[in-house]
Write a structure and sequence with these properties.
Keywords: Transport. With 440 residues, the protein is an alpha+beta fold. It is built from 5 helices and 21 strands. It folds into 4 domains: 66 residues, no CATH class; 176 residues, Efflux pump adaptor protein, beta barrel domain (Elongation Factor Tu (Ef-tu), domain 3); 56 residues, RNA polymerase II/Efflux pump adaptor protein, barrel-sandwich hybrid domain (OB fold (Dihydrolipoamide Acetyltransferase, E2P)), CATH 2.40.50.100; 103 residues, Helix Hairpins, CATH 1.10.287.
């Protein structure tokens, strides 16, 4: 109990501890008290270290329980970064083609020239590009001279007709004279048979009869000559009337005016055309094909025709003919491709075409799904589970040009399977692994 009142704190603490312990611990407290202060520090350090160790172990246990709570929430789902449209890779007929280039020309280019010559052109009624129908007036010529000639010919016809009337009257008179001479001859023949008149008088009557017959022949010839004069004048009138109709130059067939070659005031001539006309507005593409590729071109093969200068030109033509002559210098032949009527076509414009040489089944997708790469390859984005897109590099085949409402397609040779869906819009902003929203 005295140890409890010791001035040494450690000693007081130790004494209190001994007094509170049970009897078996008494020798230990006495040993501590008997050794003095230097002997008390190891026990204190041991107690403090044990407490720190227990504290650390408890912290680790409690900390581990906090780090892995039994009801931890799942990570939030990925957020879509882009809205896209998709298309399904599907089998389709793919054509193998031969690329060609050429110029547009008229299948039949007609030169319209006046038939009446020596007349001034009074009016030209059409311009380049105008569509005309068969028989439509193209130009008119000055017909004043022809009108005057026609009036003169009509007057001469009247004179000729009067001459015919006069000659017919002379013929009638000659016929009457012959009838009278024949009657006198018959009457005097009876008298001569009776001896009432001499044979000399009878011979004179016979001569008169013969003369009257010859007069009739002459009158008939004169009538025929006068009638021929009438016909000649009528022919002249018909010719002049024909020339008058020719003063209106008309289109022989329907077509489109390609070029106007004359102006008002020019003098007409059969060899001087006024306009050129594309018959039925039928144009063709004259394309040059190397001799080594001619065996790939068949008559009647379809041709897709486009223009680098005008994207509106999307036409379907047909191989019409192949010129039989191959140019000896360039070793190319001309292939003529018929073109459908179009207001966009003009003779002389340059077009390109793809002649179908064969066809087969292939896997196609819209051309808008492709993303060209700097190394020359093509990449697309395939839609996977959870609307996650996967970037793929694909090998391409032929291209199918847009036609009507159908968009341009491209054949995929490797890197894609039928039925897979590919992004067709916004592909330039996509990256591998992006989550997208698919819209119609």
């Amino acid at each position: 109990m005295q140890n409890l009142h010791s001035s040494d704190p450690l000693e007081a603490t130790a004494g209190a501890s001994v007094e509170n312990n049970t009897a078996p611990s008494q020798p230990y407290s006495e040993a501590i008290a008997g050794q003095g202060a230097p002997r008390r520090w190891p026990g204190v350090l041991v107690g403090v270290g044990a407490g720190v160790l227990l504290t650390l172990v408890g912290s680790q246990i409690l900390g581990g329980r906090e780090a892995t709570p039994p009801d931890a929430p799942e990570p939030p789902p990925a957020v879509a970064t882009q809205t896209v449209t998709v298309a399904t890779a599907a089998p389709a007929t793919v054509a193998d083609t031969l690329a060609i280039n050429g110029s547009v020309q008229a299948t039949d280019l007609l030169t319209i020239a006046p038939q009446a010559s020596g007349l001034q052109i009074r009016q030209i009624l059409v311009r380049e590009g105008n569509a005309v129908s068969a028989g439509q007036a193209i130009a008119t010529l000055d017909d004043a001279t022809l009108q005057a000639d026609l009036r003169q010919a009509q007057a001469q016809l009247s004179v000729a007709q009067a001459q015919v009337t006069q000659r017919q009257a002379g013929l009638a008179q000659s016929q009457a004279t012959l009838a009278e001479a024949q009657a006198n001859l018959a009457r005097n023949q009876t008298l001569a048979d009776r001896g009432a008149i001499s044979q000399q008088e009878l011979g004179s009557l016979r001569t008169q009869t013969i003369t009257a017959q010859e007069s009739i022949s002459l009158s008939r010839a004169e009538v025929q000559s006068a009638e021929a004069g009438v016909r000649s004048q009528q022919a002249a009138i018909d010719r002049l009337q024909t020339q008058l109709t020719q003063t209106t130059v008309r289109a022989p067939v329907a077509g489109v005016v390609a070029e106007r070659l004359a102006t008002v005031g020019d003098v007409s001539a059969p060899g001087s055309p006024i306009v050129t006309l594309i018959e039925n507005n039928q144009l063709e593409l004259a394309a040059e094909v190397p001799q080594t590729q001619l065996d790939q071109v068949a008559i009647g093969a379809p041709v897709t025709v486009t223009s680098n200068a005008d994207r509106r030109i999307q036409l379907q033509g047909t191989v019409q003919s192949i010129d039989p002559v191959v140019d000896a210098a360039t070793r190319v032949a001309t292939v003529n491709i018929t073109l459908p009527p179009s207001d966009l076509l003009r003779p002389g414009i340059f077009l390109r075409g793809d002649i179908t040489t064969s066809s087969r089944q292939g896997l196609t997708i819209p051309a808008t799904a492709l993303q060209p790469q700097p190394d020359g390859t093509a990449q697309l984005f395939v839609l996977g589970e959870g609307n996650v897109v996967e970037a793929r590099t694909v090998e391409l085949g032929n291209r199918i040009a847009a036609s009507g409402d159908a968009v341009a397609q491209v054949e995929v040779l490797q890197g894609l399977q039928a039925g897979e869906q590919v992004a067709t819009s916004g592909v330039g902003f996509l990256q591998d692994g992006d989550v997208v929203t698919v819209v119609d």
